[in-house]
From TrEMBL:
It comes from the Bacteria. PROSITE patterns: PROKAR_LIPOPROTEIN. This is DUF4439 domain-containing protein. It comes from Arachnia propionica. Keywords: Signal. Residues 1-19 form the signal peptide. The keyword Signal applies.
Amino acid sequence: MRLPRRRLLAVLGVCTVSACVPDPTIHGVPTAASPSPEPTQPSHVADLTVRLVGVLAALPGQPDPFASGATAQVQAWLGRLRRLDPLTAGEPFFPEPPAPSPGDLSEAIAAAVAAASRCVEASGTQPERLLHLSILAGSTGLANTSLAPSPREAEPAPFEEMAQDELATRALTHVWALLQGIERGLGVIATDDPLRDGVLARREEVRFLRNEILTTLGTRRPLQDAHYEFPAVVDADSFRSTWVTLELAVLDAVTALAAATPDPWRDRMTAQVGKVQAAGGGLPTWPGWVTP
C-alpha cells in the first residue's frame, strides 16, 4: 500500500529528527565522586591546644594539690578542644600535639592566656565564645599556684543565644547579693582583724562594678531584692565561706555577660578571677557554665 506523499514526508521527518538525538546510554566507567575533605581544626584552636599541652609539660614538680588539680583542668580543656564540636558530647577527634620539653610554668600559662584570648576574638557564636572565655578565665587562674582548681559538675553544652540585658540583669543580681554578703561580713568581723581592711576595699570595687552594670542597663534596670538567701554569717570564718561562693557566682555571671558583649566585660571577668582567689576560692574547670 502506498502512503500519500504528505504522510510519507512526515514519517521521514520524524525519523530524521530522531536520528539526530544523542544516544542517552552512558558508556564506560563513571568517574568516582571526590571524597569529602578531612575536617581540620581551626588554626586558633589548634594553637590553643599546643599552648595547653605546654602548660601540662610544665606542671610536673609543682606542689600538690595544685599540680594534680591543674593537670585535670587542662586535660578537660584539651578533651573538649580536640572534639569536632567542643560543645557536644563525643570522643576527641583531632590528635593531641606532641608534648614539648618542660619549660617555665609562668611562661607557658602566659602563652595559653594569649592563645585563649585570640580564640575569644575569633569565636563566631555566643556558646563558642563562652567556651573560650571559660578557658581564658581558668588559664588566668593557674598563675596562682597557691590555690588548686576546684572542679564542679557544670560543663559546656549548646544553648540559645541570650540578650545582653538578660545577662546583665543576672550579673547585677549576683553583684547585689555579694554586696549584701559583704555588709553582713563587716558586721561580724572584728575591727582589729586584718581581714576587715581587705573587705572594705572590696566593697568599693563591687560598688563600682554594680554601677557599671546599671549604666549598661540604663532605664531597664530591675528592682533590687531586699534580701538574698545564703548561709548564715555569724563570724569571720562563716563569712569567708560565703564570700567565696558569692564571688564565684559573680565570676560566672560576668563571664556569661562577656560572651554576649566582650567589651568591657572580658576585662572585668579576668579581674574577677583574682577576686575569687583573693577570697580564698579555687576556680572551677568551666567558669561561666552553671547547672540549671
